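task queued by scheduler; priority normal; single chain, no ligands, no partner chains; default sampling; output format set to structure tokens
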Amino acid sequence: MSALTSILRVPCALALIAGLSLMSQVARAANVPGAELRVSRSASARACPDETTLAEQLRARVSARADSSEPMLLDVRIDTQGTAFVADLRVIGQKQGERSFRAEGPTCDALGDVLVVSLSLLLDDDDAQPPATRGPRVKSPSASELPSAWLDLGGSVTNAMPVGWSSAWSGELVLRAARWDFALGGYWSPSRTVTFAPGELALRAEGARARTCFALLGRELRFGACAIGALAVLEARSSGFSSDGSKRRPWWLLGAGPDLRWFPSRLLSLGIHSEFLIGLGHQSFSVEGLSGTAYRSAFGSFWSGLDCSVQIW
């Protein structure tokens, strides 16, 4: 008989241990605003917060709300995996879904903080309120819709700016908001020589310009159209004449053109652009004592190039 008793002690002890382990994982419930919270912890995760502790922290963070005809059930199961604490969250009711959390030890504090923040956001979501008590929703703008400031530098090939084929260099401050770009900056082009016997004129253009662009297609790679206005200062320096000197003339231009822009990252963009410009009136230079016009601005000008912009705000 004593031998039989000894034999039975081992399975009974194992059954008792298994029962205690199972009891330690039984989920208990606590009420939180708009939901019922159930938390079960394995024996190795007993250091993690239970339903009472989590519920107290959630009540302190989440505002009270009217009773819902379909309250949510938040089922949290906490366990360990190696040196990490893990939690599986299952949402049942008006909102449904599953999510897992993981935080390295040696304590369960980090996982507890993650659970409190995540459950607070879930309970604060207006979608969890019943339709009868839900107020008007205001859509929060996404990061891409928020205004941002960019510094843009570029180089271009020009024609008739002020004469023949040449180059131009520009710098702009750009404000981007959703699909709109608003740019304000300046540009400079090197001198070009025009022969006017018996001497020559060195012509140079520099000034300010403003652009407004709208993206018609795409997001990371987008195609748009731009309108541009520019105020150039034309400078002519004479040499080889009996009396040399320099003169300046203001030159207003308006135009438009396509713009192709690529955003390889959130803080960087690369662009290809072309503009066709029309001068508001002709500007000309003459040399005193000589007949004829040494230089006369063209009716239209062309500008095409590349630019790189970096977000600064």
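post-processing summary
- The two ends are 85 Å apart (CA to CA).
- The longest strand covers residues 246-265.
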